[in-house]
Amino acid sequence: MLGAKAGTLTLKETSKPIASGRYGLPAMETHNVGSGKLVGHDVMGRATFTAAMRPDGSWVGECPAGIIACSEGVATFICNGVGNMTEDGGVSFRGGASFETTSDALSELNGKYYMFTYDSDADGNAEWNLYPCK
Description:
The relative contact order is 0.23. This protein is 0% helix and 66% strand.
């Protein structure tokens, strides 16, 4: 069961192809940067993730290290998910993320698993929505 939305970040992404080594199918490395609100704080975020196409045409991706920063502190996160290309040339991913911080302001992120939606358009405009699992 999901809790109330913990926050949304609006991001700008840039992608480049990388060697996947799997099934002879493509893989991508994507960098994103942006801002939004998370657990009641104005935040900035930055991450790099990779995604590889699977034989069925879907994509599996992971972000081994991302950062969230606000005026009261920083948090790091890891996440992974599964997605598909959209008709307009963007992507739509669903997955999960976990955070770690020593910041009192962002401490609500610790010890929880967050489900996410990540949707972007062909121009690299993306939105990341996070929901805590209960």
